[in-house]
Amino acid sequence: MGQKAKLSVIAVLLTLFICGAMLGEHWRSQDAVIETILYWGSTGSKVMEVQRKLKQWGYYDGPIDGVYGAKTFEAVKLFQRKNGLKVDGVVGPQTAAAMGITLSDTAATSYQPSRAGGTHSSGDLYLLARLVHGEARGEPYIGKVAVAAVVLNRVKHPSFPNTIAGVIYQPGAFTAVSDGQINLAPDEESLRAARDALNGWDPSYGALYYYNPAKTTSGWIWSRPVHIVIGNHRFAK
Amino acid sequence: MIRWIPTIVLAVALVAVGVWGYNQYLQNMEYRNHMENLYQKSFFELVGQIGDIETKLSKLMVSGDQSQSMVLLSDVWRQADAAQVNLGQLPLGHLSLIKTSKFINQLADYCYYLTKKVGGDQTISTEEMDNLQKLHNSCTQLNDELKTLVDNINSGGVKWGEIRQARVKEKLNEQVENLIEEQFIKIERTSIDYPTLIYDGPFSETLQQRSDIRIQGQAIDQKKAREIAVDFVGQDRVAEVNDGPQTTADIETWGVYIKQKDGKGPIFVSVSKKGGKVVNMISDGEVKSAKISAEEAQRRAERFLSQKGYKSMVPTYSQRFDGTMVINFAYKQDDVIVYPDLIKIKISLEDGKVVGFDARNYLIAHKERDIEEPKLSLEEARKLVNPNLKVKSEGLAIIPTESGGEKLCYEFKGEYGGDNFIVYIDANNGKEVSILKIIDTANGTLVI
User: Fold this and answer.
1) Are the Cβ atoms of A110 and B358 closer than 8 angstroms?
2) In the predicted model, is pLDDT for residue B392 greater than 70?
3) Regarding beta strands B336-348 and B390-400, do their DSSP bridges make them parallel or antiparallel, or are they unpaired?
4) Which residues contact residue B444 at a Cβ distance below 8 angstroms, ignoring those fewer than 6 apart?
5) What is the pTM (predicted TM-score) of this model?
6) Interface touch A141/B284, C-beta < 8 Å
7) Does B358 lie at the interface with A, CB-CB under 8 angstroms?
8) How confident is the model at residue A19 (pLDDT cuts 50, 70, 90)?
9) Would you state the pLDDT for residue B180?
10) What CATH number belongs to A19-99?
């Protein structure tokens, strides 16, 4: 008896285990199927595609929101009836084929992550550093940061171009650009100053202009309120 | 025979110089034509674009369909953007273009704002329609002026290159000035009324005229500022203290130069004249070799902040550059990260000293806020995030809007295909407000 009971317990357990495994397998394959069948409650871009098609043909008049609700359900049934398909309100392979859409994810391209150390920002950094080197050589460090900050303040201001290169190469805006000094290779200090400015340090306190009072010929610039005087430069708004 | 030799040599030399000079002349002409063509291209493109914008804006007046309006608006936005680029390339003094440039930029920005609005299924209000009408009228005037200018240029045969040359020589030819530069200055100063626009965009007038600076407290003198600066940097680092430049901008500050004991470049500290707060501190953070770790740098920055009396600050993002590390801190009120209250600290990785500090944003924006209970729950907001994003952390945050306001959002930090993103969902209406991408992942660390 004891032997028999033990055997039957083992048999029951084994059956349960096999059933469980099969059930698990079944569920997993169900999961896989779920991804390729759309029904009441489904959401996502595929549902939107179905809604768009149905709306185009006049079966559906609800919003294209990617949610398979009552309206979509009714529209699908109508579509199936008109096209001689099994009327179940579920978008399976046949209904999908009739609509001319594919249900499986056919996205063949995979996303390529950006290359680390984005070259875009370092290009701007180098250009800014070259301007700083050309315009503010021999100025104290904060004077260099301030010159770079003026460029960035202009980028943010509506009266000036909207890119760093646009501001720097605006004709007549910077003497270092006009006389070609901007093409000199920047030193380390200019690079650090440009980086500090890009990181948000602004010793010019929002200035849009600066000038060297010993060299400037523009009368207009003298009328601007001066924010701060650093080295030989007056920074103004 | 011998007396002919110098003559022959000279003659040969003369011919050689002549050939050289002629080549130079040809080359010069080639460059000049090239420049002239570029200027002409920019100018005529600009004229074409302004004309096109004018047409599109007038079509907007009679368009009765949302999607049609959106196409027109985004077209104006695109054309105005291109017009701005062309305007920036004309060889006119940038000072004679300030208003026109501003007009075109605001026009682009305003249409972008309206495109977003219409795209979000909202309608254009009567007030906004009126603004569009004003913008259209200014555009018509500008268009007329530009056409006159085109006629003048065509009949007068003035070349753009000549303006540039006159500019370089700094003796402006009267006639040239009258024709183009003067005309532009005239357009700028007299003929056109450009409207003042207030809306939710970066070039909105409200943002350009911000003056509500919040620093309060007693006025201090330069001597007191020096004491505050020395105390801030730390007495042990100071070799000598000197007065530096003061500012009279939106925040008025005293400047203090501090010469360091270790012989490195001077530190510049600016202290607000009201309240005696350190607004920023800048020094040339030259570092020969990095010795301390990023974690250690962050600990030092945190310690520094709490020593200076800034409580409840959390690190949000840090980036490493050569031998220094810049760490961003934001204020945390209850469980909400308040991004407008931002402080940046730069740490030298050689000795762990603070070499840079910037609290301007914090000092301008900081206050205790009444944070209302959001209408959406975290779970509801999470469902609105694109399932592609593998969310690693989430929470409430207040973020600054483009026009200088603030918005309560749910923040989702996550990863997609190896890139890091932050997605913001409006905590009250569930709209996706903004997506940030961490671009420099090699050197930057996002605090999750």
Assistant:
1) no
2) yes
3) parallel
4) B317, B318, B319, B320, B438
5) 0.77
6) yes
7) yes
8) low
9) 67
10) 1.10.101.10
